[in-house]
């Protein structure tokens, strides 16, 4: 798959013109690997490494138990795909921009928060569960960070060691994983699939505007995840009504997965348009949907069990109760008892808490996308700074 590059022309090298029948060879030997000095991430809980926790209270234990051995701002037992991406470049795991105390941002910053949407919602976090830090707010934060980090650097040594240099902003990798919550937001307001589809163009416009704004601030390398099969997740299966005919062989709800795929098709078109509009940008679209769906639908083949059941949760068909989530406690005889408990072995489970993936699943997903097999253009993560014509 990674070698199906015949329709790509490597702009950065003349050799591609000389031996067009060996584009893979050319890519492997003449295009330098990218050295990203930093990552700036935008998104929702799929890539939140502490944003929501910093502003609205820490994710409770047993989140973080597998890798960090304590809560670490992530809705998972361990690391997220973005952590494996950062690690692959030798960068520290990203700190949330909102982690204002003692944070070293030289390797980048994370603007994602759990519950974030592309479009601002008209409800509060406590009303609906959606974060007020929507993608436009994440961009305001990034803009502020860009300006103020440079002002801080001029103040002296300590700040120079904690803030990125100006040139880092054009050399960094900009990563995105957002959209899932925009889709569920409509359904949770009892909208029909047609009503949800009807606002997808608005999502695309707003998403596209943010990519352009970052480009105008110097951003050049963009790595964009599409949205996953939300119809396979317990929090959707448990809450939204579907008929038996709407359940596929994997046990997932087809209407919600179809709307996710509709969103992804539009996103792919937007990315193609952005490549035309932003002549110096290298934009990679990554089909995370297919990776996650194949993991869930062929779990045992990949070494996992109970693909639709939460590891951490409390009761029901999916071990998921939205009023008693992972980490929740009850008081009995004056004592606090943890009822949202982890399963025994999260390393063989896919779904962590009914909404998010386990570290084992995240690692599996990362391993599939890192080599470019699911990317358009089909280039590996380490080449994501190179622009290809098609
Ligand atoms: C919020 O309300 C405004 C004004 O009515 C509307 O334009 C916007 O689409 C709404 N946003 C969402 C996510 O429903
Ligand atoms: C900040 O992180 C960078 C890269 O990880 C490191 O080189 C630098 O020493 C750190 N600065 C401080 C003050 O710890
Ligand atoms: C959606 O419909 C359900 C069932 O009829 C109802 O209980 C719920 O209040 C509705 N939600 C909204 C946001 O209208």
UniProtKB/TrEMBL annotation:
Transmembrane segments: none
Keyword Repressor carried by entry: no
Gene3D superfamilies: SGNH hydrolase
Keyword Hydrolase: yes
Signal peptide segment: 1-28
A Pfam family of this chain: Lipase_GDSL
GO molecular function, one term: hydrolase activity, acting on ester bonds
Alphabetical keyword list: Glycoprotein, Hydrolase, Signal
Protein family (similarity comment): Belongs to the 'GDSL' lipolytic enzyme family.
Name of the protein in question: Uncharacterized protein
Organism whose genome encodes this protein: Protea cynaroides
């Amino acid at each position: 798959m990674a070698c199906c590059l015949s329709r790509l022309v490597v702009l950065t090298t003349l050799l591609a013109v000389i031996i067009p029948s060996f584009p893979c060879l050319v890519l492997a030997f003449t295009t330098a690997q990218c050295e990203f000095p930093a990552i700036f991430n935008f998104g929702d809980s799929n890539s939140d490494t502490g944003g929501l926790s910093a502003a609205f209270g820490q994710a409770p234990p047993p989140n973080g138990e597998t890798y960090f051995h304590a809560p670490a701002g992530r809705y998972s037992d361990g690391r997220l795909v973005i952590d494996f991406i950062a690690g692959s470049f030798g960068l520290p795991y990203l700190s949330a921009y909102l982690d204002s105390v003692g944070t070293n941002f030289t390797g980048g910053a994370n603007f994602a928060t759990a519950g974030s949407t592309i479009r601002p919602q008209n409800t509060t976090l406590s009303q609906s569960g959606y974060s007020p830090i929507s993608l436009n707010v994440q961009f305001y934060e990034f803009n502020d960070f860009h300006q103020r980090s440079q002002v801080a650097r001029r103040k002296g040594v300590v700040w120079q060691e904690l803030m990125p240099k100006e040139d880092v902003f054009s050399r960094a990798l900009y990563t995105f994983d957002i959209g899932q919550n925009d889709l569920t937001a409509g359904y949770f307001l009892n909208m029909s699939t047609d009503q949800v589809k009807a606002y997808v163009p608005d999502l695309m416009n707003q998403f596209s505007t943010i990519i352009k704004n970052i480009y105008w601030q110097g951003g050049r390398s963009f790595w964009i995840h599409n949205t996953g099969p939300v119809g396979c997740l317990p929090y959707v299966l448990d809450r939204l009504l579907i008929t038996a005919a709407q359940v596929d062989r994997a046990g997932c709800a087809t209407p919600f997965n179809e709307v996710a795929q509709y969103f992804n098709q539009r996103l792919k078109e937007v990315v193609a348009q952005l490549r035309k509009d932003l002549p110096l940008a290298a934009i990679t679209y990554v089909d995370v949907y297919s990776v996650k769906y194949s993991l869930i639908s062929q779990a045992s083949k990949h070494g996992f069990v109970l693909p639709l059941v939460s590891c951490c949760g409390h009761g029901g068909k999916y071990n998921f109760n939205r009023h008693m989530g992972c980490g929740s406690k009850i008081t009995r005889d004056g004592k606090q008892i943890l009822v949202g408990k982890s399963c025994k072995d999260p390393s063989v489970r896919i779904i962590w808490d009914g909404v998010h993936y386990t570290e084992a699943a995240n690692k599996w997903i990362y391993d599939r996308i890192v080599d470019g097999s699911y990317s358009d253009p089909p280039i590996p993560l380490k080449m994501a700074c190179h622009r290809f014509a098609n």
